[in-house]
Structure formats: C-alpha cells, structure tokens
Amino acid sequence: MQVPTPLLPEAARRFAAWCAVLLLAAGVVYVGIRLVVEFRTAVVPVLLALLGTALLGPLHRRLVKAGVHRSVAAGLTCVAVVAVVGGAVYIVVAALIDTGDEIVASLKEAARGVSEHFGAAGTSLDDLASNARELLGKFGGTAASGVISGVSVVGESIAMAVLALLLVFFFLRDSDKAAGTLRSLSPRGSADTLEAMARRALRAVEGFMRGTTFIALIDALCITVGLLVLDVPGAAGLGALVFVGAYIPYLGAFISGALAVLVALADRGFVIALWVLGVVLAVQVLEGHVLQPMIQSRTVQMHPAVVMVTITAGASVAGVLGMLLAVPLTAAAFGVVQELRIRYGEQEAPPAGGL
pTM for the complete prediction? Predict the structure, then answer.
C-alpha cells in the first residue's frame, strides 16, 4: 500500500508545530496574567508571602534546629520581620522627611540651571511647574480625588499586608508539610519532578532575596559614606533611596544615582558632582564585578537584557509592585527551566560507550 505524500515538507510542518505551541503558551500566559490582575487582592499577598518565606526561611529553620517549636519559631520570625521592616520604614521615612526639603531644593536649583543653559527661549522652571499643574488638573483630577478620598484603597493595602504576614506565618510553620502535600496532589509518576522543580524555584528565590538585600545594604552604606565625605546635603535620604531602589535592578540604581548627582551638582558644584558620579559608578562596578558573583553565585543568573524586559513587563502589568515582583518570579521560572533541562538532558543522553 502506497503511503500518501504529505502536503507540506518536514521543515514547514515543524515550523507550524512550533507556532502552534508558542501561540498556545502565549494564550495561557495571557489568560493567567488577566486572572492575576482580576484577583490581585488575593494573589498579591500570596506572592509577597512567598517572597517573605523565601527570605525568612533560613532564620526559621535555625530556630527549629535550636529546639524551638515550629509555631513559636514562625511567630518569632514574623515578629522579627515586623520589627525590622517597621524600623527600616521608619528610618527611610524619617531620613526623607529630614532631608527631603534639601533634596527638593537642590533638584529645583539643578533644573533651573539646566533650563537656563539648555532650555528653550521663554521656558523656565516656573513655566514647567505651571504646565505640570495644568496637566495634573486636566488629566489627573479624577485620580487625585480618588487618592485623597480613597480610604478603601488604604484599607485594601493594609488588608493585603496583614494577609501576607499571616500567610508568611502559615507558610513557615507548615513548610515541612509542603513537599508531602505537593506529592499527594501530583499526577502519577510526576511527584519527584514536581518536588525537584519546587525546591529549585524556592532556592532561586531565596538566593535572590538574600543576595539583593545584602547587596542593597552595602550599596546604600557605601554611597551614603561617600556623600557624607563629599558633604552633599541629604546624604541619609539619598542612601535610603539607594537601598530601596536596589530591589529594582538597574533601573533603581540609575534613578537613585542620578538624583545624588543632581543634588551634588546643584548644591556643591560641577566638580563635586563629578566626584559623586565617580562614587556611584565605583559602587556599581563593585556590585557588578565583586558582590554579584560572590553573593549570588549560587542563584539563577539572568542576562541584563532579560532583567530589563522583565521589569518593563512587570511595570506594564502591575506598576511598581510588578517591577518588584517580576525579577524574583522570573528567577524562580529560570530555576524550574534549569531543573527540567538537567532532568530531561540526563534522560536523553546516550549511555557511555553505546553504539
């Protein structure tokens, strides 16, 4: 019996199959993103709790190894994180309040100098400010009134924060049962693979969170000391911005560094601004060539282009919160892909000495 000749060549059929797979994957991802946005009040606390669990997991495990009951250890860990986060927020807010006027005045002075030297005729800082106010009044009136009267937004944020903290407690307390639960819910024959993927993703997020926090602290301390030595006003507030901005790779460092240079330019002159630029660049070189390889050598390494695209996508989906969550979630996805590659690569590799 003669086999019918296919209408399309092999290359075309493979291309069509890959297109179908990509379209299906894109559709699933799009539907997933829409569902996350629709149910963000419940999804965001879960994601924040997972990040918090990844960051606090080592502390909880040490307490359990020391003989502390799991529930008590989880409660102590949550109390510690509330104290640390609350203290950090207080320090950042206090520093910004104390030095905010100096920073704003310096930025205004820098903008005035730029407008005098490079601005168009008839364009001044006052004109820009009045135009900005008109734009805000025209296009942002509804949003501004919603923010002012939006008690529900504040209540929703507080509720999500409390829910995230409670979820961190339960995730820490029941972390020993997570593997068993995952295996019981896994399809037959896939329990080992799913558990390995989950562990790899958790390790990637843990390494990213711990490494980013440590690197952010070092960056903030180095830049703050440099600004204090150069007698730049608002050094504490600018250092606080550096610490917070470090959780948004590349973009956060660029914005905080640019603000420090502008403040130095307006208040201390061109030479000091160059010195501040040198300090910022030196810290970034230290981070990129020493801190990143040493501290995050065991985490999933992503190309800078992937990180920037991920941050942009996260910002388009969920704003600042999406920028904060995009990179650790992508690190977890890279960890899962690496685990699958290792497993299936080992299965498909031919035996040594085989024909």
Answer: 0.64
